[in-house]
Specification:
alpha+beta; 434 Repressor (Amino-terminal Domain); Beta-Lactamase; 2 domains; five-stranded antiparallel beta sheet; 12 helices; about 45% helix
């Protein structure tokens, strides 16, 4: 019982010290406290509100190590606080914390080079650190950009290439911001995200507008069309964690129909 009482006090204190704007949430006018609400913590941690409420209240519910990790990131716990949370909840130390990765394993680079569809590897803040020839042919040649300019999130929001249709652009930004907010809640490098967020607030009114919302998307997947000299190609993109480097994501773009696949092959055949 003592552990559960301590767990309740600890969680209330942790969420009470986080301002909503620190995790991309609007402050609102009717807040009685400065910290996060239970439902906001639950959303950021990818949990149901009921489950988190019961856990904070000290009821007899069990959270997996993965759920406790997500909760630690949502509450921005220090290494010592993370260990304390695991001790209170599971009576054992947490798994070793994984550092952010910025190096692509050679086997992964070899694999994406062998693909006949666009594929790239991004860090947790969406910086592109590896790509194949099809990315260069369909999207852009990242080797022509300075490393600090290879952030995919910033490119998609700020490039005029994606603003030919304002309604489509706004829908894209809405989706991207919702997904980016999810990644922000889980990063071990909040200072990197915060710098990017402040830059985009200054440079994009549409980003600033959608950043005030609370929408969250947990899965990096979608369908979009790219217009190229060979014609329009529609891709479905999906992402996968890399086992050797868990903080990296492999993003693969596959044509959704025969016509798109044929145009992609035609593009690949061109010099």
């Amino acid at each position: 019982m003592r552990n559960r009482d301590e767990l309740t006090r600890f969680l209330k204190s942790a969420r009470g010290r986080i301002r909503p704007d620190q995790v991309g949430l609007p402050a609102g006018e009717r807040r009685r406290a400065k910290g996060l609400r239970r439902e906001e913590v639950a959303a950021l941690a990818g949990m149901s509100v009921t489950w988190y409420t019961w856990f904070e209240q000290g009821r007899d519910v069990q959270l997996s190590a993965a759920m406790l990790e997500r909760l630690s990131k949502a509450l921005r716990l220090s290494a010592e606080e993370r260990e304390f949370l695991f001790a209170l909840a599971q009576h054992r130390p947490p798994p070793l914390a994984l550092p952010a990765d910025d190096t692509v394993p050679p086997a992964v680079q070899e694999m994406i080079d062998s693909l006949d569809v666009p594929a790239e590897v991004i860090t947790d803040d969406w910086t592109v650190i590896a790509w194949n020839r099809m990315v260069k042919k369909v999207f852009r040649d990242y080797s022509e950009l300075a490393p600090e300019d290879r952030n995919l999130f910033k490119i998609l929001l700020l490039s005029e290439r994606y603003r030919t249709n304002e309604a489509n652009y706004r829908e894209m930004v809405r989706w991207l911001v919702a997904r980016f907010r999810w990644d922000f809640s889980r990063t071990s490098r909040p200072e990197v995200f915060e710098a990017l967020i402040e830059e985009l607030k200054r440079k994009s009114e549409v980003f600033a507008e959608y950043w005030k919302s609370t929408e969250i998307i947990a899965h990096f997947e979608g369908v979009h069309t790219v217009t190229l000299p060979v014609g329009a190609i529609t891709f479905r993109h999906t992402s996968y964690a890399i086992e050797q480097a868990p903080s990296l994501r492999l993003v693969v773009f596959a044509p959704v129909d025969a016509a798109s696949a044929a145009r992609l092959r035609l593009l690949d055949d061109q010099a």
